[in-house]
Here is the input.
Amino acid sequence: MTSFSDITFNGSMVALVTPMLPGGDLDYESYRALIDWHISEGTEALVVAATTGESHTVSIDEHAELIRVAVQHSNERIPIIAGVGANSTSEAIDLTRHAKNIGAKAGLSVVPYYNKPSQEGLYQHFRTISEAVELPLLMYNVPKRTAIEMSHETILRLAEIPGIIGIKDASGDIAKGVMLIRDAPDGFQIFSGDDATAAALMILGASGNISVTANIVPRQIRDLCMACINGDAITARGLNLKLAPLNQALFIESNPIPVKWALNEMGRTALGYRLPLVGLNPANREFIRKVMHSLNLI
Here is the structure.
């Protein structure tokens, strides 16, 4: 198995939305425009076709095409990390193989959802994917979505596999994150996947943030990540306090419903979802709008 110890990511990595038209068709024109915008704003990497990208509502063919278009359009200007997770190990392998074949820099593979495997099942799932496809793999721990959580011990076992280079931790549990930073082997990368606690985890040693909020304020999230990584706690504190209301607003309903609504308010995308996701509750629109006005986003 090839070692990918030299493959590293850091800073602000956006969990990119998948723009859709009002009828639910994929909007590739807006998708390409968002990629260009993130490159110009200094985002360090794009994570495409994952949770925020609605991998759970697009077809397998659409999922594969979203990865291909991102790689083709970015044209090496920014690393593409492809969402390749599935609750079937064989499907996750197929997606990972596709991502490798079209030139993605890494894959992001979520803890299998719905079927609730044991910790040994999680270990065998990720080990099998990594050994089947020579593409750097980031694991994705998001217990609120998957109904189970990878244990500290399971993560450390998997961290010893050469092709598994890191983890996106969206648990929001700072104490567990710190223990993982302490105990992980050299070169294993730990990223926050929770915007509300990302600054704290980065100041304590995480390599970056795979961010939903970066969809709306990519430059500010980049600046926050760099301040944290560089140990500039005063700057990081100020930026984090400024962005905290936006972090809260973008999770007032299930992600990515609020962030897609906010992008539409900014005029960057049309507004489309696919069932079972529906539009933002009207009662929440004014709250998000006020937060966006306070940051001069609209």
The mean pLDDT is 96.
